[in-house]
Amino acid sequence: MSNTAEINVGGKAIELPVIEGSENEQAIDISKLRGQSGIITIDPGFKNTGSTTSAITFLDGEKGILRYRGYSIEELAEKSNFLEVSYLLIYGHLPSNEEYNNFVETITKHTLVHEDVKKILEGFPSAAHPMGVLSSLVCAQTAFYPESLDPNRSSDEVDLSIIRLIAKMPTFAAWSYKNQIGHPVNYPDNKQSYAANFLKMMFANPAEDYEVDPVVADALDKLLILHADHEQNCSTSTVRVVGSSHASMYASISAGINALWGPLHGGANQAVIEMLENIKADGGDTKKWMAKAKDKDDPFRLMGFGHRVYKNFDPRAKIIKKAADDVLTKLGVSDPVLDIAKGLEEEALNDPYFVERKLYPNVDFYSGIIYRALGIPTDMFTVMFAMGRLPGWIAQWKEMRENKEPIGRPRQVYTGSKERSYVSMSER
Ligand code: SDX
User: pTM above the 0.90 mark?
Assistant: First the structure.
């Protein structure tokens, strides 16, 4: 394809550059369009619009490819671990032995949070959804580390803010759960691995001994890898737009947590399990619910299905589906909703409505089944997604800052009233 595109606006030919990425993706650069023609483009939901160039994650939706800094998700899920993948996403290369040990040791030293975090936690009613607590605690870090408010600090200071957030996220997540069930919080155990430390803070309680099951810790570490980044998804785009105003990393990521909360995005993993439970309670008639999912007059959607980018299998869903079978077998757990999920998947993959629209299971379809088998409560599922996505949000925020990207401020086409004069109350 040529490296320019031409559009005709009112009889005037406008030539625009076409850029090409390292995986031969092409885009028309419209940054000068308005200046040359007075018109803009419009694309609700940005389905056809790129917001940036990025060197972090590559997706090929047609081929079901996902790579972090060039490494396939399949290889990383099998051979790496979450903190190594976090380093890779944030710093762009697999760490040397020394870089890795230093990264892990520094994170381990920062797992404790300020005791005043408890006062914030105590201010939340126990019914508070853990995602609201998590986004509040992350944003509150600007109060404990006011130097983090300035995103233009030295790279060492930005690195320290990164370390603090990665280290404290599991503590915030586990404490938001303990607040919900009215149990005392557990302090981090720095002898444990990242995933094991989280599990211990989540499930240990003073009334009994608790040993982390290595099968559970390994499964959780793999799930965190699978969620670590996904290019310009809704929550990552939120982090970038908030960060583009030079808001702090903590404020930007707190906004990303709130975007992830929505059931069309990261909240889908909770919505999938609630959907499967409803289908089970309704007698397990998957054909009835498939019909509802296809009925335009019915707001019901098959949660965990479909994706803005993947028009083939989400490669993460394949890995998670296999991991679900492995974990349930190893733990000796049988979960009836897994059978319902497999039944729905089988039907959808053979149903013209889903096939024509290329709707396949996404990352959220099976993840809730594993979380449940690991003992994670349903409304903590999206918190798990946020814990996994944290290094991706950090990497994307850092790339946007280092590339000195302009403030994100889209244009619009106005469709409201034309000019009219004010009418006093007595005359209305
Ligand atoms: C994540 O972007 C990312 O990368 C996100 C993510 C990440 O890692 O960050 O991958 C994580 O958010 C995964 C998606 C989790 N959400 C869900 O599982 C919720 C259910 N899925 C949908 O709501 C939907 O598929 C979206 C939101 C995921 C994508 O929506 P799009 O791209 O805007 O597509 P659309 O809503 O325009 O749907 C296209 C057609 C429509 O039918 P028609 O108008 O063509 O007749 O497909 C239909 C939709 O009605 N459709 C569905 C459906 N998803 C789309 N019909 C029934 N059930 C569904 N799940």
Answer: yes
Residue nearest to atom 19 of ligand 1 (CA): 264
Closest-CA residue, ligand 1 atom 15, reads 265
* Structural element, H or E, at residue 7: strand 4-9
Q: Which residue's alpha carbon is at the smallest distance from atom 28 of ligand 1?
A: 307
Find the 24 Cα to ligand 1 centroid distance in Å: 26
Q: How far is the CA of 173 from the centre of ligand 1 (A)?
A: 27
Instruction: Report d(CA 364, CA 264) in Å as an integer.
Output: 10
120 in Cβ contact with 174 (< 8 Å): no
The H-or-E segment that residue 19 falls in is strand 12-20
Q: How far is the centre of ligand 1, averaged over its atoms, from the C-alpha of 308 (Å)?
A: 6
Distance 279 CA to ligand 1 centre (A): 20
Predicted confidence (pLDDT) per residue in 236-291, tens digit = 999 999 999 999 999 999 999 999 999 999 999 999 999 999 999 999 999 999 99
Task: Give the whole-angstrom CA distance, residue 380 versus residue 193.
Answer: 20
State both tokens at 368: 């809730």
How does pLDDT run across 318-370, given as a tens digit for each residue? 999 999 889 999 999 888 888 899 899 999 999 999 999 999 999 999 999 99
Q: Which residue of 224, 355, 359, 367 sits with most ligand 1 atoms within 8 Å of its CB, as the best mutation to test the pocket?
A: 359
pLDDT single digits (tens) 392-421? 999 999 999 999 999 999 999 999 999 999
- Position 1 scores a pLDDT of 64
Protein residue with its CA nearest to atom 55 in ligand 1: 306
Instruction: Give 295's contacts (C-beta < 8 A, 6+ positions apart).
Output: none
What amino acid positions are annotated as catalytic residues?
A: 307, 364
15 near 4, Cβ under 8 Å?
yes
Q: Tell me how far apart the alpha carbons of residues 23 and 40 are, in angstroms, rounded to a whole number.
A: 27
Whether residue 375 contacts residue 239, with contact meaning beta carbons closer than 8 Å, is answered with no
Which residues form the pocket of ligand 1, taking CB atoms under 6 Å from any ligand atom? 45, 230, 233, 264-266, 268, 293, 301-309, 357, 359, 362-364
Nearest to 138 by CA among 175, 105, 83: 175
The pLDDT tens digits for 31-44 are 999 999 999 999 99
What φ, ψ does residue 361 adopt, rounded to 5°? -60, 140
